[in-house]
Amino acid sequence: MKKETLAIHSTNLKDETAASIAAPIFLSTTFERSEDGTYPKGHMYARNSSPNREVLEKGLAALEGGLRAFAFGSGLAAVNAVFQCLQSGDHILMPSVGYYASYKLAEEILGPWGLQVSQVDMTDLEAVKNAIQSNTKLIWIESPANPMLSLSDIVGICQIASKLSIKVGVDNTLASPILQNPIALGADIVMHATTKYIGGHSDILGGAVVLKEDDDWAHRIQRVQILMGATPNPLDCYLLARGLKTLPLRMKEHSKNAAILAEKLENHHAIEKVHYPGLPSHPQYDLAMKQMPNGQSGMIAIQLKASENATQKFASTLNLFQQATSLGGVESLIEHRKSIEGPQSSTPGNLLRLSIGLEHVDDLWTDLRSALDKL
Ligand SMILES: *Cc1c(COP(=O)(O)O)cnc(C)c1O
């Protein structure tokens, strides 16, 4: 089946009570046991498993082409579950440019427990090869990566890793399961902050891990889900499964709007640089076309011909683009990354990250252009 069909039909929860078409929401934390002590519907206690979470996990596994999926209460809880598969003394290779909190989790929280982490330019295959250590057990990729939307060659890195029996995990949040499937490119693990495109309406915090195989890592992640207990609630699971149904359609529109705006932005005199892998002028354009042939995400980063101060001010002069962090919602957002990342940030001060929403692209351009014209 194609993704549009899978998205709708892999997320069904058949209800026997009312024969409803839309899924019911099961708020129950506990489930009745039979006379012989078994659990007839497979659920015992909601931290272990529950009907709405099960449906969400099935849908995610189907769309990513994996055998198992596990949902969590945030993207970071999902990252943590993957990192918990490692032992004290193991090493993770992480990207030098990527979601800052994922690195902080490895370094600040798991470092004292004996996990080793180092960062490398994940866009450079030679550098990746050279940064692998004898105790490297996991290579963590984020592609496209925050905040400049740089890409990593997933196939290339997986080829290097598989020769050395190193697992590869991909934070696929910015691409969504619609525009990129890392498992098909050779990865073992896919992670999503479902907070972003999958939820799609800026009203749910969630995360997920999808695994290619039902192996010992899958078992361990399930144990972490149950024993560390960062599980999502049934209402959020319902909303996320509902979000999956329209995800193919939403991604098409996010992608189309961003492609149009990236080109217009590139031709505006107040812009120094546009970071969008779908532009032929982008240094990774060929990789973008190969790795994400069905479209790029709705994310664009721009650098203005303006000072850091003026750039930060610019972010609050737009009407439709609201100044806020996060991404992937129906509404367009703009954010000044450097001031969010803090003083140690290497992000340029004149850089703004745009999450292109589902408003009409003409209105979005009018908003951007009239502010840019005033610079
Ligand atoms: C938001 C985000 C996360 C973290 O997700 P939370 O739900 O905020 O914990 C991880 N990776 C990427 C790429 C993100 O955008």
UniProtKB/TrEMBL annotation:
PANTHER family: CYSTATHIONINE GAMMA-LYASE, TRANS-SULFURATION ENZYME FAMILY MEMBER. One of its GO terms (biological process) is cysteine biosynthetic process via cystathionine. This is Cystathionine gamma-synthase. GO terms for molecular function: cystathionine gamma-lyase activity; cystathionine gamma-synthase activity; pyridoxal phosphate binding. Coiled coil: none annotated. Pfam families: Cys_Met_Meta_PP. It comes from the Bacteria. Its EC number is 2.5.1.48. Its cofactor is pyridoxal 5'-phosphate. It comes from Aquirufa nivalisilvae.
